[in-house]
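Hi all, a correction to my earlier message: I attached the wrong file for DNA-3-methyladenine glycosylase II. Here's the right sequence:
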Amino acid sequence: MSATSTTAAVAAAPAYWSDACKHLMKKDRVMKRLIPQFGDACLQTRGDAFVTLARSVVGQQISVKAAQTVWNRFALLPKKITAANVLKLKVDDMRAAGLSVRKVEYLVDLALHFDSGTVHVETWETMDDEAIIAELIAIRGIGRWTAEMFLIFHLMRPNVLPLDDVGLINGISKNYFSGDVVSRSDAREVAAAWAPYCSVATWYIWRSLDPLPVDY
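and the right structure:
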C-alpha cells in the first residue's frame, strides 16, 4: 500500500476502529495475531445507500467480473443512478444491459421503496441494526445477508455478526478449529469475545482468507 493510500485509509477509518482493535487484541488470541498483519488497512464505505443496494442486487448469483460488466452497462442508462431515475427506465433497456427479468423486478422494487420513503434513510443513524434489517428485507431480492453487508460496509455498524456468511464461517474454522467444520453456534461462541466489535473481527477474519480488502 502506498503512503497516499495509507493516509486515505487512516482518514476514512471508522471512529471506533482503533478502540476496536485494542479490545479485540486484548480479548482474543487469534485477533492478537491477525490484526498487526494488516497495518493501517480498515473498513471503508463508498457510494450512497441506493447505489450500494442496487449493486448488491445486480451482483447476486453471478461472478464478481460478470457483475461488474452488467453494472457498467446498467449504470450508463440513467444520467445518474437514483431511485427516481431507475423508475423511469424501460424494462427492455434494463434487460439489454444484461439484467434478468427477476433482477429488473428487484431493482424496480428497491427504487419504489426509496422513492416512496418506505425505507427511512434519514433516520437510520438513530435506528438499531435489527430495525434497519427489517426495513431492508422487506424489499424484494434483499435477504438478511445483504442487509448485514450493508450495515457493515455502508453504515459501518461496529457489532454485526453475519452468521450466514460462508467466508466468516470458513475463517473461524481455519483460525480457531484447525480447519474442522464449525456450526453457527460454534461461531457465535467464538464471537462472544468480539462484542461490541463483531464487524471489525469479521473484517479481519475475511482478511485472513483474502488479504485484499472486501468491498461492497
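Sorry for the mix-up. The domain at 49-153 is CATH 1.10.340.30 (Endonuclease III; domain 1).
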